Amino acid sequence: MGSEKSTDQNDIQEQSVDAEESLIGEVVDEAVVSEATEEINLTVELETAKAAASENWDKLLLAKAEVENIRRRTQKDIEKAHRFSIEKFAKDMLPVVDSLEMGLAATSDSEVDITALKEGMELTYKQLISSLEKSGVVQVNPEGEAFSPELHQAISVVPSPDHAPNTVMQVFQKGYTLNGRLLRPAMVIVTPSEPSASTKKIDKQA
Questions:
Q1: What is the pLDDT of residue 83?
Q2: How confident is the model at residue 93, as a pLDDT?
Q3: pTM here?
Q4: CA atoms of 67 and 63, how far apart (whole Å)
């Protein structure tokens, strides 16, 4: 009887050990599977990251090359603009040169028609002024206008009963502007800002 109980206890212990070993085996298997799965996932993520990094690097190189191409094209355009910036102005000047050459050739004739020569010079002058205006150069000829220190330079102040105060009564040398920027002020003779005593006296007598 005692022997049978001992045998049963041994069987129970063996079954318990087997169950524990089986449980441990299952836990170990699950851990191995989990670790393997995690390793696979990490590998996939790493490969995905490498692919994205490679793609971004290619995009960066492409963008860098495009920027360099734009810089080179811009530099060439700037150099070309500097070299040929006066091309249009030079072309506009050629007819003026032609007219001057024709005028000079006419003066070699012993029987020069002064009237025709004067007309030719006036035409050449108009061509020159027109060509300058096309390039943004505008003549400043302020005779009879109010004196402007931004555009005019007074070389003398002369009272005049025929002109209002601070008025340009004579232009000694014309001025020029380039696209609104002063190249050279007009040299002018102006009347005083206030009429002189003698001018007032003349006005009263009149």
A1: 76
A2: 87
A3: 0.56
A4: 6
Distance CA 197, CA 19 (A): 133
**In whole angstroms, what is the distance from residue 97 CA to residue 131 CA?**
12
Q: CATH: 1.20.120.330, 2.30.22.10, 3.40.50.720, 2.60.120.560. Which one for 137-195?
A: 2.30.22.10
Looking at residue 178, its pLDDT comes to 92
**How big is the CA angle at 41 (ends 35 and 43), to the nearest 5 degrees?**
100
Pairwise CA distance, residues 18 & 13, whole Å: 8
Q: Could you please report the per-residue DSSP string of 119-141? A: HHHHHHHHHHHHHHHHTTEEEE-
Helix H or strand E encompassing 152: strand 152-157
**152-157 and 186-190: which strand pairing?**
parallel
Half-sphere CA count of 107, side-chain side, radius 13 A? 8
What's the residue count for the chain?
206
Residue labelled with tokens 């008025």: 167
